[in-house]
Design a protein that fits this description.
The chain is an alpha/beta fold and 756 residues long. The chain has three domains: 373 residues, Na+/H+ antiporter like fold; 116 residues, 3-Layer(aba) Sandwich (Rossmann fold), CATH 3.40.50; 113 residues, Rossmann fold, CATH 3.40.50.720. Strand 9, helix 32 and strand 10 form a beta-alpha-beta unit. The longest helix has 37 residues.
């Protein structure tokens, strides 16, 4: 009754005020007399007027830039995903997405649509936004440099890094000598053209290289540490050289640029000696997420903006100032990680793709329209590979590395990626690079980055030595091998206790490996060690407590379920244990509908369904990741649902089909290693009907009497199931159990679901 009264009051108030507005508007019409007010158009022109208004709104700068951003992000994510599936850095896909949206593809196929979406007058706005994204990105690159690592290993890396710069730099200048007359823009001196071409040949994409090293699991090796240090030294050296080259290019000669260089050096000293200690004090006081308030964030962002502004005014480009601001940030790892998380999504997902497309709009592959120009492009690619790949490899070999490691370093240092595009765009903006040379150099950047993965694979194949993180000790010994993969440390300790229950008394003949994979987008190379230590600390403590020796494996991953299956299959394990949440008990209609929706939009699952490997609306009690692991893993998989029931002394094992024979060997392991009491329920009278199952159970009874019992008349209910600490069941049996919607399912103990 009260709600009805409220509705009446609302309608009454609304009516009164609408009537009042109408009367005022009618009275206001009398004020138009004598003011030459234009009468509204006829009714038939209203729709035409609406269309004209809509067209004007679509062409408005704000609407246009928003449409461009939406298009760019969608296309970049699609291309990034596709290239990620062929084990290429996503940056390659994003760069190609930019080229595809430019005149080389979209402008060629749909010129009218391209000109409407990216009109010439809108490119300035796109350029400004992309520059903001670059400033934030370079700030992050500076923060990701671990200067402590450089101090400890710079002696080992400086020769390789300098050779990786000097050799390609020299070859780049030599290349400039041969192409200057035909390809240098009018009025550009050879000094500027040659220095910029040399710089473009020398650059290494430090962020892409660090990501590749993480993905291949070699960041913890001596080789990984060396190559990351080389790339870091290369990055610092290259950006200092680039600042000097920009100063020379703007001044016109070296002598004229001396004042700019002196001013730049003075500014660097000021940032290191005065600003850096101040920021360190602020960072030490605000190292936690709770203490990192908005005023504190404003201090660091102002430092970034002022630094970028200062270097732009000095004449060495805003990006150098952003890079410098990042390097002087407090070295506190936790602080850097929190701060990067605050800006990286906006920088990498929203703004940086704008730079790729802006570069693509400048890249006109159609300008390379004859065999001679393609020959020059091939020459540029050859010089780039010889200078960086061969130069770094030879320098590494001279410094005492074996050929395998030397070639690996060369392949990684040859990765150019986004950093190359930054240099090329600076050269293009300064008028040093012509559109033809710019397009050729972009192609070179793509080729040299794309070849990194295949080159590393070829090196591994030739030298027949895998970089897989599974230790050689595990591969030498043929034992019962368990690998447990966990996301959070609490589940890791539970899985370790479960594994220990299977091997406790047979430790000499077993190995247990704990695997932890972390999404790449939450990790940076500088905090890998700290993150790994924190993730494994509870598991290692538990291993000491229960006296279970373990081997730990850690990897930053772009596809966790794929890496779990790959590591398990290649490691030749006998059992994979994974954890799953208690959400598997939720089976409402809405939950199932949402589950199907999730699976349909998941690209990997969708591809499998389209290929006929999975039914589109297949009924499965597991989530997408678990189902993917079950589908692709070649060894038995144990899915553990932890209900915190403590030890596993009282076990129940329901049998549902003759295929459940494989459960018997795991039941036997629990009995032999944990002295477990096992009760087998046999509602379908399988033990009596199947001789093999019956004989396997009798063998256990003879070996461990009073530890196993079975009955085909037991009725499982809520009270009965509470007597146990663990249920061991097959994946097929679990599906039947879920489909039966048994009332006691929510009261089960911990569950081990085995797919053998």
């Amino acid at each position: 009754m009260r709600s009805f009264k409220n509705i009446l009051v609302y309608i009454g108030v609304l009516s009164v005020f609408l009537l009042l507005m109408y009367l005022i508007l009618q009275a206001g019409k009398t004020l138009e007399i004598g003011r030459n007010v234009i009468e509204p158009q006829l009714q038939s022109s209203y729709f035409t007027q609406f269309l004209q208004s809509l067209s004007t709104n679509l062409a408005h700068p704000v609407a246009l830039i928003l449409a461009q951003i939406v298009t760019i992000i969608i296309v970049s994510r699609i291309f990034g995903f596709l290239f990620g599936k062929i084990h290429q850095p996503t940056v390659i896909g994003e760069i190609i997405a930019g080229i595809a949206l430019g005149p080389s593809l979209l402008g060629l196929i749909f010129p009218e649509f391209s000109s409407a979406l990216f009109p010439e007058k809108s490119l300035d706005n796109l350029s400004l936004l992309s520059q903001v994204g670059l400033v934030l990105f370079m700030f992050m690159v500076g923060m990701e440099l671990d200067l402590k690592v450089l101090k400890n290993k710079v002696k080992d890396a400086v020769v390789v890094s300098n050779a990786g710069i000097l050799i390609p730099f020299t070859l780049g200048i030599g290349l400039a000598y041969f192409i200057y007359q035909h390809f240098a823009p009018e009025g550009v001196p050879f000094l500027s053209f040659g220095l910029f071409l040399g710089m473009a040949m020398s650059i290494t994409a430090f962020p892409v290289l660090a990501r590749i090293v993480q993905e291949r699991g070699i960041h913890r090796t001596r080789l990984g540490a060396l190559v990351i240090t080389c790339a870091a030294v290369d990055d610092i050296s290259a950006w200092c050289m680039l600042a000097a080259i920009i100063a020379i290019a703007k001044a016109g000669s070296f002598l004229s640029s001396v004042y700019t260089i002196i001013l730049a050096v003075s500014y660097v000293i000021f940032m290191i000696k005065i600003v850096r200690p101040f920021l360190k004090r602020v960072g030490d006081l605000h190292a936690s997420r709770e203490n990192l308030s908005k005023p504190v964030v404003a201090i660091f962002l102002l430092t970034l903006i002022i630094s970028s502004y200062t270097t732009e005014v000095i004449g060495i480009h805003a990006l150098f100032g952003a890079f410098l601001a990042g390097t002087i940030m407090p070295e506190n790892t936790k602080f850097r990680n929190i701060f990067i998380q605050k800006i990286e999504d906006v920088a990498l997902v929203l703004l940086l793709p704008l730079f790729f497309v802006f570069t693509g709009l400048r890249t006109q592959i159609g300008l390379i329209n004859d065999s001679y120009l393609w020959q020059v492009t091939g020459l540029i690619i050859l010089v780039a590979i010889v200078g960086k790949f061969v130069g770094s490899a030879i320098a590494s070999r001279v410094m005492g590395q074996n050929w395998r490691d030397s070639l690996t370093i060369g392949a990684l240092m040859n990765t150019r990626g986004l950093m190359e595009l930054v240099v090329l765009n600076i050269g293009y903006d300064l008028g040093i690079l012509s559109p033809e040379v710019f397009s050729m150099m972009v192609i070179m950047a793509l080729v040299t980055t794309f070849m990194t993965g295949p080159a590393l694979d070829l090196i591994e194949k030739v030298f027949k030595k895998t970089l897989h993180p599974v230790s050689e000790e595990l591969n030498r010994l043929r034992k019962f091998r368990i690998i447990l993969s966990f996301g959070n440390p609490e589940m890791g300790t539970s899985l370790l206790r479960l594994a220990n229950g299977l091997v406790k008394k047979q430790k000499e003949n077993t190995t247990v490996t704990a695997l932890h994979l972390c999404p790449n987008n939450v990790l940076h190379h500088y905090n890998l060690d700290e993150y790994e230590e924190e993730s494994f600390a509870p598991v290692i403590r538990e291993s000491k407590l229960i006296n279970q020796k373990i081997t730990t494996l850690f990897k930053a991953s772009d596809s966790i379920d794929s890496d779990i299956t790959e590591i398990t299959n290649q490691g030749d394990f006998d059992l994979l244990l994974i954890g799953i949440g208690q959400s598997i008990f939720e089976g409402s209609l809405l939950g199932r509908i949402l589950g199907y929706t999730t699976r349909i939009v998941n690209p990997d699952r969708l591809m499998q369904k389209m290929a006929g490997k999975e039914k589109l609306f297949g009924n499965t009690p597991f989530d997408d990741r678990t189902q993917s692991i079950l589908s692709n893993t070649k060894v038995p998989v144990g899915i553990f649902v932890d209900k915190n029931t403590g030890s596993f002394n009282q076990i129940i094992a329901p049998l549902f089909s003759e295929n459940d024979l494989s459960l018997i060997k795991y039941i036997k392991r629990f009995i032999n290693n944990s002295d477990a009491q096992v009760t087998i329920t046999d509602s379908f009278d399988l033990i009596r009907k199947n001789t093999e199952i019956r004989e396997s159970i009798r063998a256990i009874e003879q070996e461990a009497p009073n530890h196993i019992s079975w009955n085909n008349e037991i009725i499982i209910d809520e009270q009965f199931i509470q007597n146990f600490q663990l249920m061991v069941i097959s994946a097929e049996g679990w599906k039947k159990l879920v489909d039966s919607r048994s009332t006691w399912l929510n009261n089960t103990p911990s569950i081990l679901i085995l797919r053998t």
